[in-house]
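Task 17 of the worksheet. Students: predict the tertiary structure of the chain below and write it out as structure tokens. Keep your answer in the requested format; marks are given for formatting as well as content.
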Amino acid sequence: MADTVSIFVEKLSNLILQEAYLFGQVEGEVKLLRDELKWMRLFLNDADSQCLYNQRIKLWVEQIRNVTHDAEDVIDEFILNMDRRQLRLNTLKLLKCLPTCVGFIDKLPFIHDLDGRLKEINVRIERIMANRSKYGVEALLASSSSSTTDQVMEHKEKRGPDVEESDVVGIEDGTEVVKQMLMKGERRRAVVSIVGMGGLGKTTLAKKVYNHDDVKQHFDCCAWVYVSQEFRAREILLGIAYSVMTLSDEEKKEVKEMGGAELGRKVCGYLEEKKYLVVMDDVWSSEVWSNLRSYLPEAKEGSKVFITTRNEGIALHAISQENIASTVLKSEDEIAEDANSQALIYRLRTMTEDEGWELLLKRTFGNRGTSSVLTSDLEIVGKKIVAKCKGLPLAIVVVGGLLSTKEKTKSLWAKVLASIEWHLSQGPESCIGILALSYNDLPYYLKSCFLYFGIFPEDSEIKTSKLIQLWLAEGFIQRRGKEPLEDIAEDYLYELIHRSMIQVAKRKVDGRVKSCRIHDLLRDLAISEARDAGLFEVDEMIDVRFPASIRRLSIHRHDLIQGNISQHLSNSRLRSLIFFTETPERKKWRFLQEHVKLLTVLDLGSTDEDFTIPEVIGELVHLKFLHIRGHKRVILPASIGRLVNLQSLDLSSNDAYIPHTIWKLQELRYLNCCYGEISSDQFIKSSACFDGYLSIEKLTNLQALDLLPGSWLEGDGLGKLTQLKKLTLAGWLNPYMKKGFFECIANLTALRTLHLMNTRSFEKKTLLHRLRSKVWKEKVVEERRLIPGLMSFSHHTNLYKVILSGKLELPEEIEFYPPNLLKLSLEDCEIQKDPMFILEKLPNLRVLHLEDKSYVGDKLTCSSSGFPRLQSLRLYRLPSLRELIIKEGAMPRLRTLQVSSCYKMEKLPRGLLQLKNLEKVEPKFMFDQLIEEVHKETIGKE
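Model answer:
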């Protein structure tokens, strides 16, 4: 694992540079360790991809990994002891009872212990390096063919695959068949299934059908939920509720706190009068349908439940339950119709060799032509590669991703073919063998990044922002000059996507990846390889015999926290602990307090009750990542200020009390606490006494900031965060909307997204929590306007997304707006004049949302040639709006129009017929009216 050594070498180099005074007379041993590891890293770059093929190389690499881990433990334990020592000395200084000589004498035992342990490790490294020659490892490396990663082409451009996923799996013939199954006019609810082995493309086919315009318009509402092996009925119901219902933030919070039965009744009640489509992807057990069917009503004709599964028995079970439940209500004709119920099962076939060859070409060459490079010799080898894939699209797609990084020569493709044959010789699973080849071909700096996807639960949709924060905290991202680490991490992700190892789930409006996912077969591979590499363990596959060997632990099931898992919480070598369940009980903290002191990553999962983080959190001085999800009350202790290495603090939607010591954390890059209140009283008192001047301006590394407005906004500190890319301020901004505040916003020219919300509801909520039973007496204060306060955004060239909530007046000067603005959302603005006259002139605007009384007039008019690039328009809760007029030539690229809760707008917007690219109109009655008008126009022409 060359990346393991690289991570520690960079860490050690930074310590020598920044904290040399800590090591004293053992600095020489520390530098020797660093230099030896640098040499090891060079040899590992060659050895890493060869250890799969040779046991001697594998053993040598494993020994290097172990000694590197031991060295990291020694250094980290020393730094922890030094932190505790410094805290003790500071306390004595405050008590004025510290003799002058104590500081130096107190340090000697730690230095002596470090010296002995480092010498022992340096001796071990010397022996390992000697074994390279002694046991022929060096000769094996020299005689081995060049590592396939040497042939990797650079992919630094931020792009995904050249071919969309739905176009590359040879499913054209199945799309129409499955679509007709869903749209067939059943007398009652029916279950449609796609059945096929792993890697055959079930999910891809289902997505293509689900996203088809005909299907979307056929049903009143649609939901897609991932089921997977870890089946939880409540989570599936929650996913359905979020998909089909339009919920405010408060309503989402209420729904999330419901029990399973209550949530099921709410979903059932909502769907009662709807013709709905619910997709359940990756069903592994017949219990799924048995447990959920009662919450999916049969009242509306034509509703469908759409299942994908590897097991045909599950599909037959679901259909048979439907038949049994309704037989007593059926006529003879209906019973005869059900005799052919298996017609609602689509069995996905493997690809033919011709289809596989076409798919391989698409993945390898993308949309680029092949005539200039595809020789007859290359075609012969390529078709042999396709034959080895046994008609499985996933295998072909991944191999195509691998070949896209290679030179297009017969010799290199022949090496890939030979490697495939070797992997297939190791076991019966052809697809897994080919996936393993693609993993082994990854450059060393991508391997840990890919394996890390295995920590997430099966079928998870993984937010890119969280993934990158985790990669940074784990040290997986290697510096490239002055390039921002986040940009390098994004390049890593795009390379994995380009190689078809990772799939894009959602994209942002600027085309960048918002979320991603990993195929379950590739996830199985990641977990298996991670265990061999000692990278992490997942709770359901944990090896309880060797708790001390685990450095990263991912927990997916709350019941597994008990029993055997507890011993792993006593593992002093544990570096990352990630809960995808509820937050662990308070009593579990004693394991952290007594044993786990070297944590770098701590994700405490989702809290379902008020939670006070213990003071002991301050002892985790190596911590870089701390997350707690939920909607409850979370209190951070003052000791949070000791976490000087913390990069990411995310308290999600919890009501959070944050002490002023947060401003000490100068390594912070992400501070996401949308309901987070900074303690202003302690801030004033402590700042004056001990800490010097503390404020937001100290956090100059911040990339993303989401906090409740407060006294910390006073002054010019915010304007000094020149690296800030994302800023969200949602709350009572009124007291702080002064000239200085607006100047700060103007200084933040690196911003990509800006969200400003001026509302009193946040202040009332947090004060009521804080004051508990005290009576809140609302003062009448005139609400200030965001605009004209806000200054011109003409220099914000990176700003592509803006959300403004609160009273404002739109400037008519186009120069005021960000030049590359792609998405604009306006809420509660109470604009009186038609805003379209101004907004339609924005040259790059693609998405426009006008919501919650953002406009209080009764008519919106889009002029001819207005909105040249707009693709999506949403009008929501505009109570006075009666009419939308789209003049000829306006919105030529509009694809989606959503009109919701505009109750006075009863007619179809005028001018829709001339929008040639329009694909989706909501609500459905407007779409039906549009179809009727198209029909009338067609008859009139005839």
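Marker's comment: Residues 145-163, 327-340, 682-692, 762-781 have pLDDT under 50 and may be disordered. Residues 683 and 689 are 10 Å apart (CA to CA).
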